[in-house]
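hiii, so i know i said id send this last week but things got crazy w the move. better late than never?? heres the sequnce for the chain we talked about at the cafe, plus the structure i predicted for it. fair warning i was half asleep when i ran it
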Amino acid sequence: MHTTAATAIVLLLLAPAAGWAEPSGEGGSEKVIALVLFPDITLLDLVGPLQVLKGLPAPYRTVVVGERKEPMATDVGLALTPERTFAEVPRPYAVVVPGGPGSVAAMANAAVQGYLRSAAPGAEVVGSVCTGGLVLAATGLLEGRRATTHWAYARELDKLGAHYARERWVEDGKFITAGGVSAGIDMAIALAARLTDRATAQRIQLGIEYDPHPPFGGIDWSQVGETELARQRQGGTGRRLTDAPRLLADRPDLLKRLGLAPQ
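okay and structure toks below
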């Protein structure tokens, strides 16, 4: 797909509907699902669930929120702009945080962490995709809960207090977490069914023709060892973790739990 076409698609997905009124998850007619945007996310972590959840009927409304309404880079070079600020959507019905290389910095980002901590208690659903699980865990909200993340960062999730499970998505009470990248689509379809019904979720699945058949079959986890783990961690989130003492300087508690505190 050409860059201009991809840009047009994303802009259509993110375009706010007319007649916006400040939403609320408490007592309002709308049930707002907030997808959190921060710099250097993995694009599919956000756009995959966004494509699914935008298909939900009223009273659900899905929006992308961020600290400021300004373009933010993604891991593929395409910039995204939040529809609304955190302050404009203080009480979402559901909140979902994506992952990506920027997730390490987001673990110490006061605006992102503050929003998750303030929105989560009143939200009916709190979720994450990929290494967004680490961002969520950094708030303390996943302490003692079953959760998942990108498989290459399972150890970090455990160190942050969650109990990692290698599943496409994991539900623990109101928390729903997805594995790496494409798993966010599976999670979003499951969430669509949870919020409405199976028939609605299946209609959305049919609409996006989500019926994956990878050309080489599924992943054979028995063949995935330490060598591939090390290779996966050379880029993206892994590379940022090597800079964690700087990126997480304001969160010495996280550095200690991750075993990355300066000696």
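btw Confidence is low (pLDDT under 50) at residues 1-9, 15-20, 23-27. thought thatd interest u
miss u guys!!
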